[in-house]
Amino acid sequence: MKLNEFPEDIREYLVPGPSGTMFYRCLGCRGIFDSDSLLYTCPSCGGILMLSYEPTGEIRGIEGSLWRKIFDYRRMLNISPLKGIFRYYEFIAPVIPLESIIYLGEAHTPLVMANKNLEELVGLPFYFKNEGLNPSLSFKDRGMACALSFLNYLAKKKNIKNLLTICASTGDTSASGALYSAYLTNFMKSVVLLPKGKITLEQLSQPLGSGATVLELPGVFDDCMKVVEELSEKYNVALLNSKNSWRILGQESYSFEIAQDFDYQVGDKVVVVPIGNAGNITAIMSGFLKFLKANVIPEAPKIIGVQSTHADPVYRYYLESDPPKRHFKPVTVKPSVAQAAMIGNPVSMPRVIDLVSEYNGAAGQKRVFFVSVTEQEIMDAMIIANTNGHIACTQGGESMAGFMKAVNQGLVSKSELGVLNATAHVLKFSSFQEMYFSNGFPPEFEVKPNRKFGNTPLSIEPAGLDKLPEPGKPLQGKDLERFIEATAAKIASILDLKKR
Question: What pTM value is reported for the model?
Answer without folding.
Answer: 0.93
